[in-house]
Design brief:
The chain is of the alpha/beta class. The chain has helices spanning 4-10, 39-49, 61-65, 101-107, 124-144, 170-182, 200-205, 221-233, 243-246, 251-264, 268-274, and strands spanning 17-21, 53-56, 74-78, 80-82, 95-97, 110-119, 148-154, 187-190, 211-214, 238-241.
């Protein structure tokens, strides 16, 4: 069974997508709840701004799918919970799949499922578990026509910065992205590299699989807007941003600005205007 019908709901006719990730409560970190303590309000705000997709967990997806009407964003269902995002790593790390993830996705009318492919320093067993997760999901995704979004995530040692700090080394990002493609990803959700002007190399190694770029930790408006514009110029098919939207003072305005960049090629000035202006480079 082909995944194409759902991918056509996920991406525009031009092959672009903006997915707002609001799945952070899955990871048992108090700091991740900022801006989403009230999920009903957070989802309503993002839905009103009109992104292509919203990334949610199996326990919160109903908050989106209970909204009446046919114009709401598509659901991307997060399928794995991990314990790697704290300031101190636990003695035993895991990235655990929810049970019957693809059947949940079908029941909830998801356009895709998302799963981690984690690469942490000196944690080969965690990486192995993620590979097993991806391969198990791929089999079920093929059976039910569900697109598989794989999230290759290279992280710095905790002692370097502590807690959920991505490694922007393109030499590490590229092979992990390629592994995700080789494992059968229909969509890649990858980190930006340190020098975003080199991101075309990540696009190339993805071998035609669309790449959506993660937003990572909170950054200033000027940085986020300028980075997103450059990533789209480098060939990205879109973005998956979470905290840079939901923790923004104006999440609706930020969503509108980013949608304009992804879908209309908005300039820096045009995007900042949608945010209310007044932001310097």
């Amino acid at each position: 069974m082909t995944a194409t019908p759902r991918l056509r709901r996920m991406f525009s006719e031009q092959g672009k997508c903006f997915d707002v990730a609001i799945d952070h409560g899955f990871f048992n970190e108090a700091g991740f709840l900022a801006g989403i303590e009230n999920m009903r309000a957070a989802i309503d705000t993002i839905v009103a701004a009109g992104p292509d997709c919203i990334q949610l967990t199996v326990g919160q997806a109903r908050q989106l799918q209970d909204i009446p009407g046919k114009s709401k964003p598509g659901l991307v269902l997060r399928t794995d919970a991990a314990n790697i995002y704290g300031q101190t790593l636990p003695a035993v790390l895991f990235s655990e799949l929810i049970d019957d993830a693809i059947l949940h996705a079908v029941r909830l009318d998801a356009v895709a499922v998302c799963v981690n492919l984690l690469l942490l320093p000196n944690q080969p067993e965690l990486h192995r578990q993620c590979v097993r997760n991806v391969t198990a999901l791929k089999t079920a995704c093929e059976r039910y026509g569900m697109p598989l979004m794989v999230e290759p995530l290279v992280m710095l040692p905790n002692e370097t910065k502590g807690g959920y700090m991505v490694d922007g080394n393109i030499g590490l990002i590229m092979p992990l992205v390629r592994q995700a493609v080789e494992l059968g990803a229909d969509v890649i959700k990858a980190d930006p590299c340190d020098d975003v002007s080199e991101y075309h190399r990540v696009i190339e190694v993805a071998s035609g699989v669309p790449v959506l770029v993660r937003g990572g930790g909170r950054a200033g408006d000027a940085e986020i807007v300028a980075r997103t514009i450059e990533l789209m110029k480098q060939g990205a098919s879109g973005i998956v941003y979470g905290r840079n939207v939901i923790q923004h003072p104006n999440p609706g305005g930020m969503t509108s600005a980013l949608m304009a960049i992804v879908h209309q090629g908005a300039t820096f000035e045009e995007a900042i205007e949608l945010l209310g202006g007044g932001v310097a480079r």
